[in-house]
Amino acid sequence: MSGSPTAYLLWSILACLFFCFLIFHLWNYDRFQCLKWSQSGRQPGTFKRFMSYTYIATLTFLMIFSVGFTFIKFKEGYVIISEGNIYPKPIELFSPSHKKWMLPLLFVFSAAWACEIVTHWEELTFWLFLLHQGPKMRRWFDSWEFRVWLLGTVVAGLGMPLTTLISRHQLDMCQAWIFLVGSSASTATTLLFLYVLVRFPQFIRRVKEDGGEPSIVLRLVMFYQLNFARVLFRFLFSVPLFILALDGVQGNHYINQDVFWPDFLIVMGGIGCFVSSFITLLIFFPRSLTQELGYTTALLPPPMVNKSQLTVPDVSPKHAPLTVVRSASTHPSELSQGEEDMTPEYEHVDPIHITHTHSYDGHPRIRRQAWEQAQNDEAPPADGQYLGAPYMFDRHSRCLVRPHSDGLAIGLHPYVRTFRSPIDICDLEEDDHSPAR
């Protein structure tokens, strides 16, 4: 296996930058609370922590390998092999002081790739578990998808270190075999993930028809788009390294003896690896700026709507969402116990049983504001105000106010600033023309 020090330098830079972003993201997500082991002793919490630690271990091991390997590569430099061509010095020609560090670094790299495969395999099986949910509720830990993930975890956790151990006598070939086995497993997992991408739009439609909250549906749409991009970058990660490794383990090394192609494939593999890991971070630990800024949406149960005031003609229930204002969560990462049972890893995905009436802090705060929107009844905003909306922006008071002649409050914008306390809500319900706080 070849590869210049400059190509691995890119891996080091990407690994260090991404590790810094990981710390920044987790701090803003929940102040590192997601890294604490579950104190309740419940199995879903333990599984979440295990997957979080596996993902973070992948990035940590990749950073250690990239920085260490790059440092040694630059120290050893290049060598003239034939016809005046300059190539990076092979591992077998390294000095003894540097060569003794290569096998530990390769073990670290194999452990990183094993954790990467475990993470990818868990994502695949978990999304299959959600897609295969039927009318009868299934538990993740009793499903066949979980048993398949458990089997794949054991194979990956033992297979990658054993590959390094078996081929340790020739370090150049050892690196080639690690690339070959790891890229083969990653490519196969990514190919299977295409099935999830094909089925996912139908899954989102089913959640909407079952009455899923808008925040749940929006998050599923975001997951679908992120997964689509992540699959592309995973192919960019695994396919170039597979080509490079396949050329390294067979007799004639057409690609590895070239000056351009080894560096190009290594650079492409590094970019695909860290970009896909970045997208995984957004899926594993999704931040909600809407909730962090104090905005939220909810669904008003049908019994609480005053139907005598509704004058919009004949609207299907699934096309007429009812929204209310409720207090924002203390932090976007807080979950109810039911959500944790249903989703061992992805925070706000519950396609079957979704609660509608309570805020995330456990206290229902519901305002008597409802809206219905008829099919194909879209109107462009005029003068900074949504047509038919009960609130508009007052430039003098710099807040949302309700006009005197609004009639029925239909068309309420889904992102309305939440109220500070229940007292404000009571005051506003007594005086419909009070400005929003």
TrEMBL record:
It comes from the Eukaryota. The chain crosses the membrane at residues 6-29, 50-72, 101-121, 146-164, 176-198, 228-246, 266-285. Keywords: Membrane, Transmembrane, Transmembrane helix. This is Uncharacterized protein. The lineage of its organism: Eukaryota, Fungi, Dikarya, Basidiomycota, Agaricomycotina.
